[in-house]
């Protein structure tokens, strides 16, 4: 996901150099991703109804809601592509003719993000300008799809990208004497307790907590070990949360065979995931921006 709006307007050229797309990435409002995934809003609705939904629930401008082109990845993915070009700057008829190709490029980018080839979440891509070739043969899918994907990646990387992880809701039952041990186990696994109360009519305590899914593996075994088998738990997926730290922070040095902590965590997850998938350690925006001047500007902003 992203934490801020793109620091600079980045553009991407098609392989033949005759088309140029300019896109800005920004985070969506809290709750929109969940609404899209739950089917509370759909692009099968008339544009007017979609606009009214976003206006009523999130205070969007009516035109902003009606200009949404796609959700992604898939039909109910938690990312948004919208057309915010102005008629004076962009030939709208030409842009509509390549709409499907831009959509495909966006879907591809949303499905395989630049950090570690995993899906994006909670990001809105706004097309703010499009300079397209006069001849239809020069703006086919083979030219527009890769250009749209590249510019989605470059705008994403200039908008303070962040890694997200799933979080499990855990419900633990244990005798009162074992509560301290349960807290110890949760503390070692980045868990935090949300509710803690005795269970009426029994000697047991009910502890509700949230634990990142990556740390929930082996939690039950740990609990039984620390409480002599007196505690038992059940857990299921609850929500997504941002991993602490900047995944692009090259100053973080990972120690072999040692877990990372605090603000180093995002970098640790990204590098280990990329290595496991056979990708290079370098997440460079240079691969997605052709213009040397723009590249220098972006690099100076990131430093």
Automatic annotation (TrEMBL):
Asked if the record carries the keyword Ribonucleoprotein, the reply is yes
Task: Work out whether the entry's keyword set contains Ribonucleoprotein.
Answer: yes
So which domain of life are we looking at? Eukaryota
- What keywords does the record list, in alphabetical order? Ribonucleoprotein
The name of this protein is U5 small nuclear ribonucleoprotein component
Recorded source organism is Coemansia nantahalensis
Traced from the root, the source organism's taxonomic lineage reads:
Eukaryota, Fungi, Fungi incertae sedis, Zoopagomycota, Kickxellomycotina
């Amino acid at each position: 996901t992203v934490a801020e709006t793109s620091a600079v307007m980045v553009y991407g050229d098609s392989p033949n150099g005759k088309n140029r797309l300019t896109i800005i990435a920004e985070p969506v409002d809290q709750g929109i991703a969940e609404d899209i995934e739950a089917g509370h809003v759909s692009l099968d609705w008339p544009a007017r109804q979609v606009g009214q939904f976003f206006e009523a629930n999130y205070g969007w401008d009516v035109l902003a809601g009606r200009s949404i082109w796609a959700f992604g990845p898939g039909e109910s993915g938690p990312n948004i592509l919208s057309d915010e070009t102005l008629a004076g700057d962009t030939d709208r008829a030409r842009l509509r003719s390549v709409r499907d190709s831009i959509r495909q490029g966006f879907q591809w980018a949303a499905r395989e993000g630049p950090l570690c080839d995993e899906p994006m979440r909670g990001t809105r891509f706004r097309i703010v300008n499009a300079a397209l070739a006069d001849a239809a043969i020069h703006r086919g899918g083979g030219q527009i799809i890769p250009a749209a994907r590249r510019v989605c990646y470059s705008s994403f990387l200039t908008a303070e990208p962040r890694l997200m992880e799933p979080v499990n809701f855990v419900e633990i039952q244990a005798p009162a004497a074992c509560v301290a041990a349960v807290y110890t186990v949760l503390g070692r696994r980045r868990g935090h307790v949300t509710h803690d109360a005795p269970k009426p009519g029994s000697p047991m305590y009910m502890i509700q907590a949230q634990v990142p899914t990556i740390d929930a593996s082996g939690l039950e075994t740990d609990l039984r070990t620390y409480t002599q088998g007196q505690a038992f738990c059940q857990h299921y997926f609850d929500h997504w949360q941002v991993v602490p730290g900047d995944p692009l922070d090259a100053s973080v040095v990972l120690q072999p065979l040692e877990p990372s902590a605090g603000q180093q965590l995002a970098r640790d997850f990204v590098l280990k995931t990329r290595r496991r998938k056979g990708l290079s350690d370098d997440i460079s925006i240079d691969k997605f921006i052709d213009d040397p001047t723009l590249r220098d500007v972006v690099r100076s902003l990131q430093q």
